[in-house]
Every structure is written in structure tokens, then in C-alpha cells.
Amino acid sequence: MRKQNFLFDKMTVGVCYYPEHWDRALWESDIKRMLENGITVVRIAEFAWNKFENEEGVFNFDFFDDFLDVCEKLGMKVIFGTPTATPPAWLTEKYPEVLNARQDGALYRHGGRRHYNYNSPLYRLFCARIVEKIADHYAKRPSIIGWQIDNELNCEISGFYSQSDTVAFREFLKKKYETLDRLNEAWGTVFWNQTYTKWDQIFVPRAPNINAVNPHLNLDYIRFVSQSAISFCALQSDILRKYIKPGDFITTNGLFGNLDNHEMTDKCLDIYTYDSYPNFAYGVDSVWDDNALSDRRWSRNLTEVRSICPHFGVMEQQSGANGWSTRMEAAAPRPGQLNLWALQSVAHGADFVSFFRWRTAAFGTEMYWHGILDYDNRDNRRLSEVRLFADNLKKLEKIRGSKFYAKVAYVKDYDNEWDSTFDVWHSRVSRASDAGIVEGLQFGHVPYDVVYLKDETLVSELAEYDVLIYPHPLIINEARISVLKEYVENGGKLVIGCRAGQKDMTGKCPMLPMPGLFSCLSGSDVIDFTFQSPAEKVPKVSFGNRELEAKVFCDIMEAKEGAKVLASYSGCFFEGRAALIEKEVGCGKVLHYGSTFTRDSVQAIMEYLGVLETFDEIVTLPGDIELVLRENEGRKYVFLLNYKHRKVEAKVNVRTRSLLTGKEVSGDITLEKFAVEVLEVL
Ligand code: GAL
């Protein structure tokens, strides 16, 4: 399990509040009403730079001092945000070099947010100064319990193309490659005559270009963006550390692309927080498709967050319909969904859930992004549901800090994740398998963790899992192969999919038979491969008692000595060729499946490996219900979450007690629509 610097000392409910959006006359009644409804923390100030520095170099702290006075009088706790996501107009007008640019060099203009670049030396100076001033002034206030850096680093935009970025990119590359010869070699610049003879010929990817940016440059560019975001976060956390009270925490809220969130958390944060808006899932699945994950799909993101920080916070939990005046339309959460979604966060590891936002903004771009209260400020059903959730949370104290049970890990790494953002072959297989893995494991009641593999990963971090599924590690190196080998030799089971081992760390293709470096583990030899043609039928693979579809892509394989073929393709030009190969390695084994993973193929393989539907001793569940198991000091706690817009039946096969009702539960049970049950196994 990853290290955790900060744990909440009790299950906590919060809310995002913008004192600058409301008449001061409302502050006191708002805070009182929050407290009456179980909300004990507010997050404030993350977009309010002008309230501290309305003119360059002229500082004033009265506004938030007055607000903190109210909080302190009434007993409200505060998470204070640094306001760097929205630089003031005086700053961006006078110093346009702080602005981020599009790939064609056009600058982003004032009026939105996150229009700055991380690398402008001047912006970094302004940010360092405002953070220092704020921390110096407010850090000792007793109401403050934590600090949020900026807001959603890399959200809205995760590409940076300003002058300062190009300058910083060159420095990043000089450090990495030292000489242009090495860089030219790593990027294969001999192709299409891209060879660089001076460092200042190198730029961040520029537009317009004719359909082509060097893929190896692109991969390094994303690594650079990630480093830039981390260094911007570190700039602020280093300052905050000098001022914050002992016991207060530093966080930032995520989860966004082109950013190694694990490294950022290790370097800069005490706890990672996530912004959870499950309503977005309805853009992917329709409510009417009974076979779809819909909002349950959000558990995928929460699992990812848990991999960064086992006991995280949710800084923004959906409380109303999504919407901006410029984009997005969405339904209001149905009665019950607000409580369900907040408990989904808790089930997956959140000990702090803060709703976005107390009251819907009455003006501005986000006036359709609904909060708990509407513009009319009357009590409403959403407020009652927040109250219900707060009451529920009090009863879940035993869950706080408890371990998420998982015997399967979905292995990822940033190099492959980033490569797949621009390599279309890579992204097609990865996206298909991601859906298949998440659905297969969810519907098959296989609780899983996500593990990010790095060169430094220790075998002890993998050893707690019986099965690792590492679907498409196109990019791989010796260090990662070596830890996987040790894991398997010690009895672990590793599953890989098509295209494994295709590339090295630069994103180039080594002249090796595929699966490249994996060959020593997998016993498979990829003799040919192909995308699926829409003009042909999807090849079939019969395995166990299932007929699987080998969708999107197929590695056409042969087993090498010591490996065995578990299943073959049919209905295609490579009829009879191996589709699934197994090789025993030490006390464990490696399975190479030649295609992408579908819900069915994941379940077939998990069944074969003995990790599908293993909870019958405790509960018998239809696929409709999400199962989460948490363990604390030898006790087991089972979350059952019903996302369906209808009731679902299940059966509890042991004696349990509901933490929510206090009643003993066993035998047949009905979970009403959007209901959650949390059972302690007695
Ligand atoms: C989040 C963001 C909030 C607010 C919310 C609704 O991504 O952190 O500041 O913008 O979305 O759009």
C-alpha cells in the first residue's frame, strides 16, 4: 500500500463555498445552515486572487479575515485554496508572457481560467509571492485545517505551448539527453530530415503541421508537461510547508491527464483529493441500457485515485445537475443518487466528502452547474439528501482508514498512458480493453486495485495480488520486466494482451519478435498481427464454456517450447492460430491473450484463474450490484451499491449487521433503486 501522510480523524462532510459570490449578510446564516446539516468544513478562496491583490503589489487580507472570523465564531473548519488558477486581469494584461498559448502560438485570453503557463518565470514569481503572503497571513488561523494548491492542475487544458514552455522544454531535454546526437538518436530524427543541429531549433509541438508530429518528441513533451505541473505544484507546497500549522494538510484536487499524479503526491502533497461527477457517465451510457455501467463506471476513477492515495478526499462531490452557460446540459441527480454517489466515494476510500457547491452561482459561466441549494436559497430535496448522507457517514466510522480488499490489480503506467494519447493504434486497443476490464471485473464482482508500474516498483507492492492484468504494455523496459518476473516466479499470475512489448522507452520499435521483452515470460511468439476489418466478421475464440469475440486487434501467435495454447481463433484468415497462451514461470504463470479484452474475455480469464465471483460465502449478488469489501482489524465490511433505476434482489449468506440501520441482516434482501447497504460480517 502506498504511503499516506494525512488521515482525517473522523469521517467528514464538507462543501465548496465562495464568500465572494454572496452578500456578506448571508455568510452567517449559510454557515449555520451547513453545520445544522452535518457539514463541518468549507473549501474557499481558490479563484479569489483579486480579493487579496487587487492591484499589483498592493495586498489586503480583510475580506477573508472577516469570513474566517465568522467560521471561527460558529465552529466551521476551512480548507484554504491558493488562487493561482485565475490570474487577475491586471497581471495578464501587463505581462502577457504569463499566458498559455495554443499550438499555433495564439495566446489564451482573460475571462476563463487556467489560461496561464506553468513555466513563465514571471508567473512563478507572482504565484510564489501571493502564496507566501496568504500563507504568512492566514496559516495560523485556528479554523484552517488544510490547503488546496491551485485548482485541478491540467484540467480544461493539458497542453502548453507558450514561449516559456519551449524554453523550459529545451532545458528538460538538455538534462535528459545532454547532447543533440543522443536526442536525435532517441527521436529517430533522421526520418523526414528532422535532424537538429542546435538546441534552439527544438520547440514544443507546433501548429500548423501537416498531420505529423514526431511521436518520440510527443512522448517526451508529455513527460515534460507532467514535470512542469509537478514543479509548479512543488513551488507552492514548498512555500506552504514553511507556514502551515502542525497537523494541517496540503492537497490539490484532480484527476487529469498528462500528469504523473503519483509523483506529484509523493513530492508535494499530504493527501490527494478528487472531484467526482458521476453524472458525466450518462454521456457514455444511456440510462435505458440495462447492460451498461453508467454512473457505476465512476468507480473506475475512484479506483485510480485510490492507487495514488489509499485514503483520499473528495473535494468536489456532485450535488446537482452539471452545466455551464457555454456548454454541457445534464439531468438533475435523481432522488437517492446524491447519497449513492457520495457513498460510492466512501466505499472506494474517501474519508472526506465535500460537495460542490453550497448554492448554485446566480451569475457567471457556471450558473447551470447546480449546487446543493438553488438560487432561491430555500431548503430543498438535495439539502435533505446531504443531511441523510452526513447521518449515514457518522455510522461508518468503522470504515475510516480500513483497507480496500483486492486480489486483482489492473496494472498501468504513465509511459503507455501518455503514448496512447497520440498513437492511434495504441489508443484504440487501450480504450477498448479499459472498458472491457472495468466492466468484466465490476459485473463479475472482482474488487480490484489499480497499480502504476514504475522502474522503482518493488515486488512487495505487487505481491498482495493473486492476478495482475497489464493489458497493453506496448512500452516496456528491463527494469519493469524484472519486477514482473519476480512477481510471477513467486506465484503471481500475469495477464497481458495484444501489442505487448512493441516499443522501448523512447516509443521506438526494437527489432525483436513480439512480444519483445515479454517473450522470456510469456512463451508466445507473435508471427503476424492485424486490426479487425469492419468488412469482416469478428474472429471468435472459444475458451472455457464461452465463445469470446476477439475485437479490434489480434496478435496471431505460436507457443514456444514450454508454453501451451489454451485457445485458438476461428472464423478468420488465421483460423486455428493461438489466441491465448499460458506459460508457467517459477511458481506462477503468464497468460498472453492476443486480442483486446472484452467484458466476456476478462470474465473467462478471471474464472480460469479462480478470482471471479468468489464472495458467495458472504453474498449472492446479481451483476447489477457493485460489491466493495473493506477490512479493518480482522473485521469485514461489505458495501452493496445499487445504481439501477429499479430495485434489485440479493441474498446474504452469513450473519451480518447493517451499519446504516443497526439491524441484523441475513437471507433475501431487496435493494431499492439507488440504495446502499453496508454490512459488517458478524
Ligand atoms: C470542477 C472545478 C470547479 C467547478 C466545477 C463545475 O472541475 O474544480 O471549480 O468548475 O468543476 O464546473
What features would you describe in this structure?
This protein has 682 residues and is an alpha/beta fold. The strands form five sheets. The protein has a nine-stranded parallel β-sheet. Strands 14-13-15-16-23-22-21-18-19 form a nine-stranded mixed β-sheet, sandwiched between helices. Strands 12, 24, 25, 26, 27, 28 and 29 form a seven-stranded antiparallel β-sheet that branches. Helix 1 packs parallel to helix 3 (62-74), helix 5 (121-138) packs parallel to helix 8 (215-243) and helix 11 packs parallel to helix 12 (381-394). The longest helix has 29 residues, at 215-243. It is globular, with a radius of gyration of 26 Å. The mean pLDDT is 96. The protein binds beta-D-galactopyranose (GAL). Beta-D-galactopyranose (GAL) is lined by residues 151-152, 155, 275, 316, 356, 366, 369.
